[in-house]
Amino acid sequence: MSEVSLRLWLEQHGLSLSIVWDPMDRQRFLLGLGLTLLLSLASIALSLLIGVVGAAGLGSRQGLWRGISGAYVALFRNTPLLVQLFFFYFGVGALLPLVDGVRLLNGTQWAIIVIALHSGAFQAVNLRAGIDGVPRATLQAAAALGMQERTVLRHIVLPLALRNSLPAMGNTVVQTIKSTSIAYAIAVPELLYASNRIWSDNFNVAEMMQVLLLVWLLLIGLSSWLLRRLEYHLRLPGQELPNAA
Amino acid sequence: MLPEPSPLMLLWQWAPALLQGFGLNILMGVTAMLVATVFGVLLGSLQVSARPALRRGAGHLSRLLRNLPWLVVMFYVAYLLPYEVQWAGRWWQLPDWLKVALGLALPAIGYVSEIVRGGVYAVPSGQWEAAQALGLRHGQALRYVIIPQTLPSLVAPWMNLYCAVTMSTSLANLLGVEELMTTLQSHLSSQLRSDLLLPAYGVVFIAFFLYIYPLSRWAKRLERR
Fold first, then answer.
1. Is 0.95 topped by the overall pTM?
2. What is the ipTM of this complex?
3. Domain B31-75+92-224 maps to which CATH number in 1.10.3720.10, 3.40.50.1000, 3.50.30.70, 3.90.1150.200?
């Protein structure tokens, strides 16, 4: 009975929040939230992988790899994510073979791949800047100690470079989470899409918009807090960034 | 029966309509950036005001604006703004492209504000002291001494933001505004040809790249200086 009285109370106050009393709407909304989290985690993981490969490519001694990585970064940083998504989902996706009557990759998978490609270009640049920010003298000191190139990379360059890049990479991670709402465009039922379905059925655009904004603010607030904690946890005393004011 | 025209031939025929669509993208980008610059500079000035409470409030607002996905904000503004507004004794219709531009301006305000704040903090504190020694109040010091010095360093991030805003105008497609992608899709739907999809979406990709890439290269050159 309490659900009914809650509904009455909310409606008397002009709040038509169907996700509170309608189990189906609530489930749609929660599934949307879950899918947004899944899209975020998967595309962050993939974008970091692409970022590592891209950063290696940008600093490669072979001109061909440098050229390919540079072209990839320039293309994906300077075009809208939505255009990339449509290009891959409708343009490239239509060329993929059918497996058992369905396309090889579904909307959710394409969304993860394209968001990761987009964010990966930013991560590659962030990571490259961090690697280039390791002072020359540190590398010379490592060489003077007789360290091999791989040892230097693993124990000297990467630990310092990762810490250099962490603030920028964290920003891009937050951007990646935000950009998952683009999957709405190809009918992946994430938060925005789920909310859209709910407000079309219940005519409660205004209420659902407030809920949507609130959930997104919580999501972004939580992830930036976690990233700040990570930065604090990994900080090295005395490691000052040259550009930190 | 006539032979089917090749994809490139068709796209060439559509070019005038597509260019017009892209014009709307640029118009939305410029409008959003104008609004964002005016209100962003205001909010940024509040972020470096002399009163701590004002500074904190403006900081929270700016973070709030930056923390929301552009798409969600665009929907929010476009759905909740009225269809027409009464102003100066007349009813004015709000076209969808304007609603989108205003929606996209909101997060951009947060970014402009942050750019201004960063620029002001980069000015050496001696400048503040010098302005104070000349008897200028906080607002006057900001306006006549500090802000003019930050202007050169604001250009590059401002350009980068313009690029980001212009790219985000493609989101207007999801609200049916007749911008580049919407124009393309309405032409595509009259054709029912799958060999057209890849080159057609490729054209949108290239159009944005050709407009944005030179601008972001330019911004990068300014940054290095």
1. no
2. 0.89
3. 1.10.3720.10
